[in-house]
Amino acid sequence: MHQNLDEKLLNALRKGCRKAHNEVYRLYAVHVQMQAFYILNDRNDAEDVVQEVFKSLFEKGETLEIKKSLKNYLLMSAKYIALDMQKTRTHHKKYIHHTAYIQPKMELPGKQLENRDFNKNVQLGLEKIRSPLIRDAFKLYHLEDKDHKDVAELLGISVYYSRTSVNRAINSLRDFLKNSD
Fold first, then answer.
1. Is residue 90 domain-resident?
2. 95 occurs within a structural domain
3. CA 115 to CA 98: how far, in whole Å?
4. Which one of 19, 70, 77, 174 has the fewest beta carbons within 10 angstroms of its own beta carbon?
5. For every one of its 181 residues, what pLDDT tens digit does the chain have, with 9 covering 90 and above?
């Protein structure tokens, strides 16, 4: 029975049917959230994963290719998005720890000129980031002290994408600063 229903829903999804998308959400959102929560152990992050999974499903439209069951496809999508989110979170924590360790040393009086040069290099590095969305997410989060929820609302993106964008900006800046020495 599920296979027949899944096939009907998949065909409707490929045609862009919003009603089918809502039905798939109703049937599987709880399972997707449980899968994400199992990996992330955070309800808000698990909800972000649910949003990403179903947004991606709807955006694929005609190109949607599912070999096995729809439920398995959604659970695997949730698993990989959650693992990616977990990896991003780990990198972000390492960066914060590293920054907290380095920053006090940079504030010594003899280092003010170095600090000014560093800030100029960060600004130059930000200008080199091609995506205005990634650049803006970084500025809002790190320079204006907004949290990811606020950044997401201001930029019209998901909280997950806010985190990903900030992480991409950090990686770009890190590469730029390594090469500017």
1. no
2. no
3. 16
4. 19
5. 466 777 888 888 888 888 888 888 999 999 999 999 998 888 888 888 898 888 888 887 777 787 778 888 899 999 998 888 887 766 655 565 555 545 544 444 544 545 667 777 778 888 888 888 888 888 888 878 888 888 888 888 888 888 888 888 888 888 887 877 6
- Residues near 80 by beta carbon (within 8 Å), at least 6 away in sequence: none
**Domain range for residue 169?**
107-180
CA separation for the pair 76, 63 (Å, rounded): 18
Q: Are residues 172 and 117 in the same domain?
A: yes
Tell me: do 127 and 61 sit in the same domain: no
Single-letter amino acid, residue 94: K
pTM of the model: 0.52
Residues 74-99 as b/e (b if ≥16 CB within 10 A, e otherwise) read bbebbbebbeebbebeeebeeeeeee
